[in-house]
Description:
By secondary structure, the chain is an alpha+beta fold.
Amino acid sequence: MxxxxxxxxxxxLLYLIMGAYFAPDLKGGNPQKSALQRHAEGLAQYLxxxxxxxQINTRVMENVYYYVLRKADPSAVVNxxxxxxxxxxxxxxxxxxxxxxxLFDDLFPPMLHHRSQCRDQHGTIDNIVFVxxxxxxxxxxxDLEKFKxxxxxxxxxxxxxxxVPHKTVDDRALCYNKVQETSELDGTMPSDxxxxxxxIPGTETCPDVLSQIKASSxxxxxxxxxxxxxxPSKEEWSNLVSSTNGGFAVTGSAARGHLGPVLGxxxxxxxxxxxxxxxxxxxxxxxxKDFSCEVESDGTVVIKGVTVTGERTVEKWSxxxxxxxxNLCPPGPFCISxxxxxxxxxxxxxxxxATDGILEGIALKAxxxxx
Length: 371
């Protein structure tokens, strides 16, 4: 099985930068406490209902990591590919040395911070916010001195106007490049402590189309995003939508959810004696022969089924429709797995897959039946 091999110093810096400069985006949290600060203070685990339903682009995390380590020895800095694999948790981590550090998935549990990846390895993560001026007084003095020694930092506040995307050559970070002031095309926006930086509620910002715009003004852009300096009027909003070919707009509560494919989006709740989960399964066949949902004793939920949407052509009432857009999940078999917060009794599970495309399940906690 492939794995990421990190030195002790590399893992230490990943753990501290990701844990200190990023926090769960909680409702009413102002300022937000970083993941490491919450862990050090022994705060209770938050639930899905506590989260603010936002998203952050992994480019922001990448930019923060390389900016903080711009003066560090290159041997302590991981390349872009490893950094993104670490953030997405796609490959297990192995470490040289005796020290142990929390992984990114430990700081931000995937069940509460859904990851989505795009073709360039970047993507978005739900309910994480950037902390520009993190508290560090909870760190052990030796860890604090070690961090200062590697980074050369005395003040941990980040000047966000200095954050720009790092450049890579052959997948190697150019960490010693002088950081220039941000421009209108760098894709970042100034933010106060605990506010969103390139963090757009309910929107996936995948490829960096800004570089595509600069490279070629005559070619079509694969994907993009339009930023408005102020809230448009209804007439301006209508004109923007009508100027697109096959585009669409969402407002109100729909704008706070996920745009694009929504298959597999998950909400998890917890009561005193049970867990509840809801999974979005639009366009999935509900026939028993094609669909199954199994719950294991350790809390693992495995859903298997077949989607019937996303075709290039659709036949209805003796007519054949050529689809102008294909945003729904493509047809074919799929498997979704996730883990509930704790062990359950598989014999005490009840699930309902309704016509609205939402699978809802309730599983009783195993401890209730322990002797």
